[in-house]
Structure formats: structure tokens, C-alpha cells
Design brief:
Layout (H helix, E strand, L loop, with lengths): L21 E13 L8 E3 L5 H7 L5 E4 L2 E14 L3 E9 L3 H11 L5 E13 L6 E14 L26 E7 L4
Parallel strand pairs: 2-7, 3-7
Antiparallel strand pairs: 1-5, 1-8, 3-4, 4-5, 6-7
């Protein structure tokens, strides 16, 4: 759906174009959660914790929000899956939306790189101190772009950016102008 006006690409997104009848998307990817690593509240996510929720909802029903604000969606997740490291997410920021434009500009400037999950713990077990809980089953509602993720390793990475200690730099940020509604 076109708004009839051109989206202004954020600075630093060379080659991103848009015009009437098209929407500008910025592709992002990274890990929204890492298995076996405590977050700042002491929660540790177990492998397989997201499996039932992802099977039930799929990526299309998991929202991409701006700082966990349900009134500010910024795009859509196209792929969300568990692998040996954690919860991998790949999606597209819609820069035609005000919050999406802001998020893409901050990502391009290197000022925003965090991912954070919004969820309900369906099954949690007491963890050994200093950790608080082992999250065994999670009902995933959304993955947000944030300044300060609760799990320090849950971050976007641009090509060539330093990785998480002990893990590869796994996120890529790229511009992709394409017609609205195109898959």
C-alpha cells in the first residue's frame, strides 16, 4: 500500500531508494536471545524454550516493535528460529513508518544495535545462584529493537563489526528497496 509520498532513506543506507508505489525496507538479522547465558535479571533461557511458540505462531505473528511499545511497530520478522546459539531473527524495517525510519537511521549510525524479547514464561525452574530462573518454555510475543537489551549479547551486527566475545558477529544490516507487497 502506498501513501503517495516517497520515503526518505536514513543516512548511511547507500543505494536505498523509494518512490510512489513502493516502500523502502531495511533488512536486519541477529540473535534476539542466547541460550545458556544469564540476562541482567538472572534468567537463563534453555534450548528449545521457544519451539512450541514458534510452531504455533510463526514469524508473521511475532511483532517487531520499537522499545517494546505495541503502539510503535517498525517492521516485520520474516524468519525466527532456534539454532544451537539461541533465537535467530531476520526481518525488515519499514522505513516509511516514522518509528521505522528512526530505527533504521539509528542502526545505520551505529547508535542502536539491541534486540529484546517480549514473552510470558510458561515453564520456569529455579536456577542455581547467582541466576534466578531457567526458562524452559516461553510464549514469545514480540522482538523489539532496543538501546539496552536485557541480554547483553542480543544485538544486531553490521558486516565487519566486532562480535560477541566467544561468538561470531552474526547480524547483517543492509538496505533493500523493493516494491510494496513483494516477497
Amino acid at each position: 500500500m502506498s501513501t503517495g509520498r516517497a520515503a526518505i532513506p536514513p543516512p548511511g543506507l547507500a543505494g536505498a531508494t523509494s518512490g510512489p508505489g513502493s516502500t523502502l525496507f531495511v533488512a536486519i538479522e541477529g540473535y534476539a536471545a542466547l541460550f545458556g547465558r544469564a540476562d541482567l535479571s538472572g534468567d537463563v533461557i534453555e534450548p528449545g524454550a521457544f519451539a512450541a511458540s514458534l510452531m504455533r505462531r510463526g514469524p508473521e505473528a511475532i511483532r517487531m516493535l520499537w522499545h517494546h511499545d505495541p503502539a510503535r511497530p517498525v517492521g516485520r520478522w520474516t524468519t525466527i528460529r532456534e539454532d544451537r546459539l539461541g533465537l535467530y531473527a531476520k526481518g525488515e524495517i519499514a522505513v516509511s513508518a516514522a518509528a521505522g525510519h528512526e530505527a533504521a537511521a539509528l542502526i545505520a549510525a551505529g547508535a542502536l544495535d539491541g534486540l529484546s524479547i517480549g514473552f510470558r514464561a510458561k515453564l520456569a525452574r529455579r536456577a542455581s545462584p547467582p541466576n534466578r530462573r531457567r526458562l524452559v518454555t516461553i510464549d514469545l510475543w514480540e522482538i523489539s529493537l532496543v538501546s539496552f537489551p536485557m541480554q547483553e549479547g542480543a544485538r544486531l551486527r553490521a558486516p565487519g563489526a566486532p562480535g560477541i566475545p566467544g561468538l561470531p558477529a552474526f547480524a547483517r544490516v543492509s538496505a533493500a528497496g523493493r516494491p510494496a507487497g513483494a516477497a
